[in-house]
Design brief:
The protein has about 210 residues and is an alpha/beta fold. The chain is about 55% helix and about 10% strand. The chain folds into 2 domains: about 5-125, Response regulator (Rossmann fold, 3-Layer(aba) Sandwich); about 145-210, Winged helix-like DNA-binding domain superfamily/Winged helix DNA-binding domain (Arc Repressor Mutant, subunit A, Orthogonal Bundle), CATH 1.10.10. The protein has helices spanning about 10-20, 35-45, 60-70, 85-95, 105-115, 125-145, 150-160, 165-170, 175-190, 195-205, and strands at about 5, 25-30, 50, 75-80, 100. Strands 2-1-3-4-5 form a 5-stranded parallel β-sheet, with helices on both faces. The longest helix is centred in the middle third of the chain and has 20 residues, at about 125-145.
Length: about 210
């Protein structure tokens, strides 16, 4: 018997999937709130977490990050009815073990779950092709970025929430020098405006720059 947690804000889908899995002799806990689920999962210690990518309180990527920060090692399998596979790609990059389209039949979904519970990744073949295309584009974009070592240092410190004064102290440079490198950094990442710091971090996360 596997312990499975389902997180989805669509009650009808949540109920139907719960019945399907319970009929296969699984112990199932359901949550329509990611925040409530995050608290309960620590005690449940599920063998698998099934999670929608798009939820009001917290999206799937944020939930995966929260699980990682909470040191919860249960594998996460994402579900979505969307055909925008950029978010699926990002979820896999963040550690999800697979993706199931919500249009799957109960039989196909159960087969996918068995694959994941056996320790393998699962992504439908047609989706895998599109994700590989996205990965190639991201790789090309990353190669075309020419960030200096100093710019990367500053970018990582921005990601850590450091202010310019703190960045200057950490790198033993002046705040004017920090601003100079930031200007080049933002230009390379093609971000601007009052929220440039946030946009730069978001762009870097999308491109996987912090994994270099």
């Amino acid at each position: 018997m596997n312990k499975i947690v389902i997180i989805d804000d669509h009650q009808l889908f949540l109920y139907g999937l719960k019945l399907t899995l319970e009929n296969e002799n699984n112990l199932v806990a359901t949550f329509d709130s990611p925040i409530e689920a995050l608290v309960a999962i620590k005690e449940i210690q599920p063998d698998l977490i099934l999670m929608d990518l798009y939820m009001p309180e917290m999206n799937g990527l944020e939930m995966i990050e929260a699980l990682t920060e909470a040191q919860i090692a249960s594998p996460v399998l994402v579900l979505s009815a969307s055909e925008d596979y950029h978010d699926v790609y990002q979820a896999l990059q963040h550690g999800a073990v697979g993706f199931i389209p919500k249009c799957y039949s109960p039989e196909a979904m159960l087969a996918a779950l068995k694959t994941v519970l056996s320790g393998e990744l699962f992504v439908p073949e047609d989706v895998a092709i599109k994700i590989n295309e996205i990965a190639q584009v991201e790789a090309n974009n990353k190669q075309n970025l020419h960030l200096s070592d100093r710019q990367m240092q500053i970018l990582k410190l921005i990601h850590e929430g450091k202010k310019n004064r703190e960045i200057a102290e950490a790198l033993c440079i002046s705040q004017d020098t920090v601003k100079f490198h930031q200007k080049g950094l933002y230009a390379t990442l093609q971000v601007s405006g009052s929220s440039s710091r946030i946009k730069a971090v978001e762009k870097a996360l999308e491109l996987g720059l912090f994994k270099s």
